[in-house]
Q: What sequence folds into this?
């Protein structure tokens, strides 16, 4: 099991040496975006969602909630995040309260297959499906929660070929929950859930640049409360991820899809 962290809210405060309410937005941005590309990756994802103010968006695998809050602020939408890890849901809820967004953003500890609501206007995943063995079933379940014609946007890690990345990784410590697909297979898995592709973009070159600049950004944030510091063996996991991208073992793809049928 990779996601074993507990009481993340207290850990963030301890590392920062301050209450959550005293953290700057730059400091929070270094914590709550549990994916490569940070807040800018969310900015790249948003156009593929076809959002309008008043819509409700489903965040599948919501983590610490950074993307959900960012979308609520920038697009004027409500967001419901679902995640199976209790500590992440609790931390996301605390950070949302600090941001004053509890009326727009909420988080639920559940698996997508047991989520009852079925009328979302859009959905997205960011660095989630690498932990999912049955990807066709996963994306089918997402489609079942959406209105007809709704948009799905993804920002996901893929394997480039047969080689395996070194462990540990941000999404897998021992490899037992690591289910990487090639970009072609992932796109096919998404389409099998009733979606048609609108856009499919290789973002690897940009992500490599983002990793190159990550150290300077963390230094500018001026806090010990960083995402790698929150995670078990976090620095090794991030370094292995960056190395696998640089060596051509992994890629990062951004996609936009529309629900056309099941």
A:
């Amino acid at each position: 099991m990779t996601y074993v962290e507990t009481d993340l809210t207290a850990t963030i405060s301890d590392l920062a040496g301050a209450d959550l309410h005293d953290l700057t937005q730059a400091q929070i941005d270094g914590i709550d975006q549990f994916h490569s590309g940070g807040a800018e990756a969310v900015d790249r994802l948003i156009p593929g969602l076809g959002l309008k103010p008043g819509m409700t968006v489903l965040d599948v695998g919501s983590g610490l909630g950074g993307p959900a809050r960012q979308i609520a602020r920038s697009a004027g939408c409500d967001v419901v995040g679902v995640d199976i890890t209790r500590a992440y849901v609790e931390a996301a809820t605390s950070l949302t309260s600090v941001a004053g967004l509890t009326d727009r953003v909420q988080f639920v500890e559940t698996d997508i297959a047991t989520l009852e609501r079925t009328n979302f206007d859009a959905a997205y995943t960011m660095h989630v499906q690498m932990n999912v063995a049955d990807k066709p079933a996963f994306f089918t379940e997402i489609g079942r929660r959406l209105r007809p014609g709704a948009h799905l946007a993804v920002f996901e890690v893929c394997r480039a070929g047969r080689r395996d990345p070194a462990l540990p990784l941000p999404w897998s410590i021992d490899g037992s929950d690591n289910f990487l697909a090639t970009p072609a297979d992932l796109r096919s898995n998404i389409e099998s859930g009733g979606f048609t592709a609108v856009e499919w973009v290789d973002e690897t070159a940009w992500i490599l640049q983002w990793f190159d600049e990550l150290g300077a950004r963390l230094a500018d944030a001026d806090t010990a409360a960083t995402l790698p510091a929150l995670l078990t063996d976090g620095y090794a996991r991030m370094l292995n991820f960056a190395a696998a991208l640089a060596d051509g073992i992994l890629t990062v793809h951004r996609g936009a899809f529309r629900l056309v049928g099941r």
Summary: The domain at 8-259 is CATH 3.40.50.150 (Rossmann fold). Residues 61 and 253 are 17 Å apart (CA to CA). The first strand starts at residue 56 and ends at 60.
